[in-house]
């Protein structure tokens, strides 16, 4: 099945089973804004808990914060967002569609990669166990030709980004023959910069209102509170401040469902360190964050690090954790060494000293910062993409979300075999006993087979069937989602069986 078709099925599945809805749908929707349904909000909360606890519970020197969305407008001048928070945009004159110039070029690079990978895949199939991929990549003429094209384009692209050469970006698009996906034409405008911040007004009267911005990131709320947290918490460097919160960006080229939205949620941690030690901590957090992703069990080969072509104005090192979505490898988390840029800027613009006195060195300094920043919505999409599966069975096909049990919205579905003979009451007793520990669902509609399929599609890891034997010996049939195997167990053992599988402690053990 084509990757585009898989992605379309993912989007449809998310709506059909209560994960994600188009915002304001009854009014024909609002572009690039989405609402999370009854299943989606549970999965989203579980992802946030996994991140939060892994940061705050597992690290003695990381604490939490919840800063306001509205902030003093000078903060965004100090941070560089007013002057430098831009995307390079280009329009196609025929389709009237707007695109990010850098994304068009990244897609072209991905096409060269795909051509090389197809050649490798064909050769691997032809030669079997005797296939030497490294030697093939170094000697095959078609692979070498595409690698040369990739290298040349990559160098030009990197140079243009670092030099902020907008004309150079357009020239690359023209030289590569990149066409508009809608019109198929190469009739492009010049590339220009577009600021992504949403502006609004705060004040009781129009005359007295001041212009403020909806925050485009949560990090600045941490930076301006850094000294408050350090002093009140008696924190010693190195230490971190974690935050989960909403951010807003006026994305002109919002696309790929919830991958790029105008209102989204971030999970960010700013780690304050001594100057000179930041790159060591950068490497440590790279390793820590990759372990966090891989612990979910979606396949180590589906993750990779991607070094930035162009460093942000505040960074001296930056890398993305990328996951292989149905539409290719894309960023789910950024790890940046932000130097002392943010704190120094706020010290300058506010006129307040926000330095740290290091008792070991006997001196004060502006700390350096290593940041980990992950989008909740992208992580949500990554989990859904990795979990979605269509399995061909003997008589039919089942669609199943093989979510990690700890993240699954519903942990347990309890089903009476029939709606009589006291079986519904027995099922309710089981739910009443377990609902304080697990999110349970009662399901009595349709045949037991259809109920299993429905719970598979939701991603419920355990289904318990209450039958006539249950009333006699207090046992039930438990069915496991991924294997579809069933076993007879005592009702009294259900809490332990399920608890071991859905415990965050089990997941944290892999970190």
Automatic annotation (TrEMBL):
The keyword Ligase applies. It comes from the Bacteria. It is found in: Cytoplasm. One of its GO terms (molecular function) is glycine-tRNA ligase activity. Keywords: Aminoacyl-tRNA synthetase, ATP-binding, Cytoplasm, Ligase, Nucleotide-binding, Protein biosynthesis. One of its GO terms (cellular component) is microvesicle. PROSITE patterns: AA_TRNA_LIGASE_II. One of its GO terms (biological process) is diadenosine tetraphosphate biosynthetic process. Residues 197-409 form the Aminoacyl-transfer RNA synthetases class-II family profile domain. Catalyzes the attachment of glycine to tRNA(Gly). Homodimer. HAMAP family: Gly_tRNA_synth_B. This is Glycine--tRNA ligase. The gene is glyQS.
